[in-house]
Design goal:
With 450 residues, this protein is mostly beta strands. Helices cover 5% and strands 50% of the residues.
């Protein structure tokens, strides 16, 4: 058994290396929901009740107890994001002439993986690795909103070992720590003087990184055959991001390089899912997710030397909510077809929409399939399209989102725009069963009569 456990750990390390390619955000704000190819084909409906396969551990770690033996699932998702911001009347003179953002979207591959191993009839261990947060937006280097965004990059890596316990035939619980790496790099134009033409402004950079620790916990209930109900929780992770504020060396009174720190709490997530069989070959799935983005208000950026606030990230997000429904049909013993739709209320609206992240409510329409290649290997694929609402934004003096984002300019600058976007998402993956699957022994009820 120890050899198997070591192999499980090695599989997790391999997954961690793969995740280093993570990129664009495809959930509200800078969250990434693409953690399972199977769940992607259902628009994530029922992910917390196990419909997303082994990778459902991201939403609910208690799903680790659903499958006997030793199983590994790996997913690779390509996100093709397209979006632009068109300059509107109200933008400061001089800057308005610089034009629109161009396509701010960047394509990226997001890997993720999950492995479960059954120790005995009651106990499972598992490992889920993915990137729960990420963002890459890159408008034209010279454009009307350059003071507020020249490029934005956020990267994360989350490693989540879990222990699952099957209390009895209908109840399972699980929990585990999360170890999360977080890195950001934000650039914007720096208008130090009104004498510098907008088209020739230098760049200011804020960058930093951090490791943080959190936890996940979940419950899975299967009250009768064909029904599973799951609730999962992912805690907030506190990140003390340390890095540098780099300003252009254009004035001897300004320090071009300052060590800084910003404390950022990622949002905690509550996921709820129901999977119900409606025939021996068909199932319907329902999902709900709450993301506590309102944790992220104004994030001060402080000097590591003096402790004084030198900048701020005025995010001021609201909570995010996602509702999803999906269905699966076993076309044959080897082929399963699925589809789903979801609606997400973004934590970003006109009151806090920024040129860095002009997010809005979106509808996700998805299809997918699984093909059982052999007794051990199953191949998964999914495609989804995101329809993102049009959103107006206004940045400048007097707004919650103002010129404090990177470097407070010496002159007031207003930017008004309208953002539009969409995304095509293609996900492929596989599930592999190691050894011979072990049939779990039915657990005894909680209460015995003597």
């Amino acid at each position: 058994m120890m050899g198997n456990v070591r192999a499980l750990a090695l599989a997790g390390v391999s997954g961690a290396v793969l995740v280093l390619g993570a990129g664009d955000a495809m959930a509200g704000a800078f969250g990434i929901r693409e953690q399972s190819t199977i769940a992607a084909g259902l628009a994530d409906a029922g992910a917390a009740s196990g419909a997303g396969g082994v990778s459902s551990m991201f939403w609910n770690p208690a799903t680790v107890t659903m499958r006997p033996g030793w199983i590994s699932e790996q997913n690779f998702t390509f996100i093709n994001l397209s979006g632009d911001i068109r300059t509107q009347p109200g933008t400061s003179p001089g800057f308005a002439a610089l034009g629109n953002s161009g396509d701010i979207g960047q394509g990226a591959v997001v890997p993720s993986g999950a492995t479960s191993y059954q120790l005995n009839d009651r106990l499972w261990i598992g490992l889920q690795i993915g990137a729960p947060f990420g963002l890459v937006t890159k408008p034209n280097p010279v454009w009307a909103g350059e003071v507020y965004a020249r490029s934005s990059r956020i990267f994360s890596l989350n490693i989540n070992p879990v222990i699952g316990y099957k209390v009895n035939e209908w109840l399972s619980v699980a929990a585990g720590p999360t170890f999360e790496y977080f890195k950001l790099n934000l650039k914007s134009a720096f208008p130090f003087s009104p004498l510098i033409p907008p088209a020739n402004l230098p760049t200011a950079i804020l960058k930093g990184e951090s490791w943080g620790v959190g936890f996940t916990a979940g419950v899975l209930v299967t009250p009768w055959a064909g029904t599973s109900i799951g609730v999962g929780y992912r805690s907030s992770v506190n990140h003390g991001i340390e890095g540098l504020l780099l300003l252009p060396p254009i004035n001897p009174l300004i320090t071009p390089k300052a060590a800084v720190k910003a404390v950022l709490d990622t949002p905690d997530k509550l996921s709820f899912g129901i999977t119900q069989a409606i025939s021996p070959v068909a199932r319907v799935n329902f999902g709900f997710e709450w993301d506590n983005w309102s944790r992220l208000g104004v994030v001060p950026v402080r000097s590591l030397v003096t402790g004084a606030a030198v900048q701020a990230l005025p995010l001021n997000y609201k909570d995010g909510y996602t509702y999803s429904v999906g269905a699966e049909y076993d076309w044959s013993p080897a082929l399963t077809l699925r589809g789903g739709v979801s609606y997400e209320q973004s934590p970003i609206d006109f009151s806090n929409r920024s040129a860095r992240l002009p997010d809005a409510d979106r509808i996700n329409v998805a299809i997918g399939a699984s093909y059982r290649w052999s007794e051990k290997l199953t191949l998964n694929a999914a495609y989804s399209h995101l329809f993102v609402d049009r959103g107006r934004l206004l940045a400048g003096p007097g707004r919650d989102y103002d010129s404090r984002y990177i470097a407070a300019p010496a002159i007031p600058i207003t930017f008004a725009g309208v953002a539009e976007g969409s995304a095509d998402i293609v996900s492929v993956g596989f599930r592999y069963v190691f050894g011979e699957p072990a049939a779990p022994v039915a657990a005894a009820p909680l209460v015995r009569k003597y």
